Each structure stands twice: as structure tokens, then as C-alpha cells.
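Minutes, methods subgroup
Present: GH (chair), OT, SY

1. OT presented the first of two proteins processed in the latest run. Sequence and C-alpha cells recorded below as shown on screen.
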Amino acid sequence: MKLGFEESQTPYSSGSQLARAWTERWVRDWVYCPNCGNQKIDPFPSNSPVADFFCESCSEEFELKSQKNRFGDKVLDGAYDKKCERLAASNNPNLFLLNYDLKQLSVVNLLIVPKHFFVPEIIEKRKPLAATARRAGWVGSKILLSQIPDAGKIYILKNGVPQSKDTVLAEWQKTLFLRSEPLVARGWLIEVMKCVDSIGRPEFGIEDIYAFDKHLSRIYPGNQNVRPKIRQQLQFLRDRGYLDFVGRGRYRMRSIG
């Protein structure tokens, strides 16, 4: 995987449009499909309303966002209503987040958020644009990257170092079971996965997860049986191979490989 942009491309001089051209070219030339492993992905025609790239082999679709600095807790996205409509759609794209270094003219980080981690809880509604704006009243959205569990942020390239392709494909497959779940059920599973992340160690007891019952009650105020729901989610994650049950109310994150 070559990290630098093509020398034949126009030197950087006009901001975001050139940067987008560079990063799109780099993704087209060097990035494989994290779903099926196909060695390359192809660009959609310019101004596609849904996505930037697709895999000809497995039909996965991908949206690319790139910037100089690392992405923070929130990522700007498109129209809020349209984003919400797309959440349950089969063509809701996976999200590539790419950081580049202008001095070195190269890519530094590339991670992917699989589309099955996109649930209503991670989409934030922005304020409408002012009446004086060109698109007055338009309502945008933000993706709350901080609300996505660690398993939903898969690095293909990290700090200038390509990650093992086998590991990337295995990490992708590890959470693919979420796609078969409806949005509400998926939201519960993702919240419990985040609680597991917050514990900060690979093995934990059910009491460690029960410590989040008030937090989960605030997110799902209509559920009056949070602890039984937690147990149900842990059992589901165990049955799908995300967790291992090690006995006496204890679980362990299943490692890759």
C-alpha cells in the first residue's frame, strides 16, 4: 500500500476540492473491500446522491470523508431527514474516515465504520441554517463518532502503518450479525457493547454491566426491566461469538485470531 499521493497530480493549492480529488484517487488505487477482500473498489459517477465507492464483487457501498486532522467526537454529515431515512436502507453506505498530511502529501489514517453501526442514537440534528443563508432552513446532521463502540471503528491504516488485511476482514465479520437486527434491537446491542468497552478490560462480571443500568434507563425510559434486558443482550452477543461466557456470571471479549 503506497501512502503518498500521486506525484503527477496537481500540487496542493486550492483547499478542500484538491484534497478530495487526491484522497478519492488514493482510495480508488489502494483500498480493498473490507467486506469481501476484493483488491479494489470503484468510484461511483460524480455527485452520486448516496455514496462515493462500491465493490463490484459484493456490492458494498462506501462514503468517504477526509480531512487534515484526526476526526473528533463528531463528524459533519448531510441533511438530517435524508440521513434518518437511509439508516434502515440496504444502500446506506459504510463510512471511510481518512486523515492526510499536507507536508508529506500522504495518508496517515484510514478507518471504516460499518453501516450496521448507524442507528438513530448516533445521529445528531443540527440547527437550521439562518434565513440569510443561501440554503435557509436547511437542517444538517452530525455523526456522533464517540457513540460508536470500538468494534465499529476498524483501522485499515493507523498512524501511517497498514493493518493486517486478515485482521481487518476478521474485525468486519465479527459484528456483521448486527445487520440482521432491526434498528431498535441493534441500538440496544450497540449500547451494551459500549458499556463493555467502558469497563476497560477483556473479562468482566455481569455486575460490572449492571452498573450501567441507570445510564441505559435514561436512554430507554420505556423499558422497566433493564437488568433482564442487559442479560438478554449479553446472551445474544455470546451466541453470535462477540463474547465468550466463562462461567459464574463472567464474560470475556472474544479476540480475533
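2. SY then presented the second protein from the same run.
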Amino acid sequence: MSEWLTYNSLIVLQGVTLLGACSGVIGCFAVLRRRSLVGDALAHSSLPGVCAAYLIVGEKHFSAMLLGAFIAGLLGITIMAILKRYTRIKEDAAIALILSTFFGAGIVLRSIIQQTEGSGRAGLDSFIFGKTAGMIDDDANLITALSVATLAIVALCYKEFKLVAFDAEFAQVQGWPSRLLDFALMLLLLGSVVIGLPAVGILLMAAMLIIPAAAARFWTHRLSYMLLISAGFGMGAGILGTFLSATEGMPTGPCIILVCALFFFASLLFAPKRGVIARLLARRRDQLTLRAQMESGEGPTS
């Protein structure tokens, strides 16, 4: 076994690989539904839930903090839906409102916790910036279970989610409960955000959701392939990010995000048909073909 692959690294790998797959899959639906910023809003809105859970329990209880983050995120989803449906506020304004208000409330609660006696044990910064290296066996097992459950739900409801992701109005006309399915997708997005908080933190979780999906979009037009490619990018980023963290002594969460960004730019440049280089070559080939036709007197063909 290599030097970097210690017991702690294996625990981290167990958590981040399935987290990467889960985030990549759910992120595809967020990208297709044009809700990339919703993940960012949900991540920021989870902070007051984490702080409130600590104040209620009185200690850093991992499961309680994740539950608090989920409840706070669910409240954020509900408020966004109400603002969008019953007011004239657009979705982007509602997202900005929820993101800033909830995150501000979380910072205030965090300051209150830090001023209380014995607050040094809170460790709330790990939920803001991520602290994958501090993950223990129980944490990794919980992340694994939640990630597997999320992926299983997507597999069972794949056809329904696919229809809603591409044409929610058509699904409504055909008699599908499109609003319920859309809300289920939002809950899965929230669940993915909550799962990833201990690994990459509130500030970087949106990137974990969106970047693998955006990278996978360059490689295929089919949703099934996009889900697999995005999951592969997420898992690969988790593995390579953990390796860089263990060998170079850098923080794991940011390393994972940087590897995701590397996958994105590689896809942007080198993906067949949709990559920048492929498009430039295709344009150059068309120009040469047109020039050859004009020189031969044939003119452009229809």
C-alpha cells in the first residue's frame, strides 16, 4: 500500500467518491433545469440550520447538524417557491434574497456560539470551508448511505425526472405531477448539498454540483450518458483531490474543486464536436472545402 493511502485516506475516499457521483448526477438535473444557482443558495441557507442544531444539542453532533442543515435548506426552498409563485419577484432575485439573508443569519448565530463558554469545540468552520481530512468512520458511512439512497431514487424515477428536466410543461399536459416531481428534484438537490457540507463546505458545494455536470454536457447529447460522465468526473475529482491533499498537504475540499475545474476546461477544449478545438477544426475544414469548391468552379453545394 502506498504511503498516502492510509486508513484516514481510505475513509476520506469512501466519502468523497460517492459524494462526487451523487453530486454529479443531481447536478445534471440542476443544469438542465437552469437552476445552477439554486444549489449555491441552498448551501448558504443551510448555515443557520447547522448553528441552530449545535445550540439545541449543545455539542458538535454530526447527524444533528446535517439534519439542521436540511431543515434550514427546506425552509429556504419553501420561501423561494412562495416568492416566485405569489409575488412579482423573479427567481434570480429570490435566490439572491435567500442566499444573503440565510447566510447572514448563520454568521450571526456562529458569532453567538463562539462567544459562549466551551464554544471552541463547535468546529463550525469545517461546515463553511470543508474539512474532509477530519472525517471519521461514522461520518463516511453516513455520507455513503445518503449518497447511495439518493442515487437509488434517481435510478427508480429516471424517466419521470428526465421528462420534467427537459419539458415540465409537456409533462403537466400529459398528466404527470410535474410540480411534485420538480419539488422532489429540489429535495434531492438539497440532500446532495447537505451531504457534501462536511467535505467541501458551504462555500464550495455549489461548484461540486455544477462543474462536473457542465463538463459532462460537452461530451454527449443524451441524458443517460451525461449522468454517467458527470458521476465519473465527480468520483475522479474526489480521488485525485484526496491524493493531492494527502501527498502535498493541501486542503482536500479545494483540491477536489480544482480537479473538477481541470476536468471542465479539458472538456471545454478537447470534447469531440462541442469542444473549442473540435469546432475550430470543423470551421477550418468547412472553409477549406468551400475554397476548393469555389476554385474548381463548382460553387457551394446545398
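Chair's summary of item 2: Residues 7-32 form the longest helix (26 residues).
Next meeting: continue with the remaining queue.
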